[in-house]
Amino acid sequence: MLEGELSDPRIAPSYVTDVVLAPGGKSARVFVAVHGNEAEEESTLAGLMTARAFIRSQIRDRMGVRHVPELTFAIDRSERMTGRMDELLARTRKRESKRDEKAAKAAAAAKPAEPASVEPQP
Question: Would residue 110 count as lying in a domain?
Answer without folding.
Answer: no
